[in-house]
Design a protein that fits this description.
Keywords: Lyase, Magnesium, Metal-binding. By secondary structure, this protein is an alpha/beta fold. The chain is built from 19 helices and 14 strands. Helix 16 crosses helix 17. It is globular, with a radius of gyration of 28 Å.
Length: 531
Amino acid sequence: MTFNEELKALTQLREAQRGQWDNIDAASAARMRVQNRFHTGLDIARYTAAIMREDMAAYDADTANYTQSLGCWHGFIGQQKLISIKKHFGSTRRRYLYLSGWMVAALRSEFGPLPDQSMHEKTSVPALIEELYTFLRQADTWELNHLFRALDEAKAAGDDSKIKDITAQIDNHETHVVPIIADIDAGFGNAEATYLLAKKMIEAGACCIQLENQVSDEKQCGHQDGKVTVPHEDFIAKINAVRYAFLELGVDDGVIVARTDSLGAGLTQKIAVTQEPGDLGDQYNSFLDGDEISSAEDINNGDVVIKQNGKLVKVKRLASGLYQFKQGTGEDRVILDCITSLQNGADLLWIETEKPHVGQIASMVNRIREAVPNAKLVYNNSPSFNWTLNFRQQVFDAWQAEGKDVSQYERADLMNARYDETELGQLADEWTRNFQRDSSREAGIFHHLITLPTYHTAALSTDNLAKGYFGDEGMLAYVAGVQRREIREGIATVKHQDMAGSNIGDDHKEFFHGDAALKAGGKDNTMNQFG
């Protein structure tokens, strides 16, 4: 509803109370309604799920319509990201938030900093989703509050043209609330545990849940060693659990991202159940490493024997009880994982790779699309990659294959700053700049995310400030490096009282107390120094 429609409805409601609500100003109540568009997390989940589905269809029509996100570990960081996007680009279209399990573990656990191994409290995941949306909704209220204040000034000045313009801005306001792709890790337990946690995440506002095919009690970061996958039947059960959670809560178009870690995982916790040759369990077991045996005498105490491709094979089992996959089978296992997930309820794929290489990703996606033509990826533009070195080496290898002289470059040392201004260094930067566009066009990537960029930006900016402030620069380090830049670059946080809600609170006090309101934003508020 528009502001005037809300005003009309609330005026009628107030009048129907026969004087009981005479202290209530219908315009103020209408303003509060407009400034609080979403009442529950489920309202947000349903709204953002529709956005994601529209964006997925737009990508299928034109791969230039890929989407992006940055991982945010606090509501304020997510809020400032979306405020920045609106300021610089005028719209939040195709820009999301990513909730990283890595950053929850490292920054939000009551145990303190933890590695990305599902040891943190699982309740901290839905708590962060709720926090992110609380801050995004507050950004709506903050932005609209400024518009309503401007509207009041225009009315006081009798400026009809300005009144019309501001009213249109209010009625057409674009919310800061965008989809969150939320990391549920490996589900934090069995399928029932996955379902219960998924419900909490959806109730907090998540329209999209990312689930990985690792063993939940052995889960590792996708860029660490020691990853252990589960048979497909176990993973499908958890996909089903997430879908049931979406359906129970009425988010019928909720999105499930099925992540496979098989490219870098060499182990499995158990042998898959198989009923007949060639079924899904048999295909999974066909990748297990082992030694062919010819008689019972070849079997020792504790050995496990399976039938593999018509032969008896003693499976290689580690001291940990885990089973080992054959070397070089990672990509084939990825393909089987992805096709199986899409055919059993997943909407999007996530293939965890060891480097950002368009050709590598495309080779896998093309194989998947032979079975599922509209398969598309969520891709981790990971800070775990050395992007500079990777792309310089890719350029080096391409030039070498073309027969170009690369003798002035040392491949293993290409990270060296002396290569920054060289032809190779500049071309590598261009490849990096175009990576998202190129891979979305050539490798089926619908969504690009950086999992933990704000972890790194917080550390870098804090280091820069600490180096100067505690050194010779003193207060100038803050003034020149932070505040002056905030003022000149139009960063809203320079008026931190306003950003935290001081003006919103003042307006509410006036609604509640009228002329008796004791407000904080008067002439002696030092925030006025910033204009």
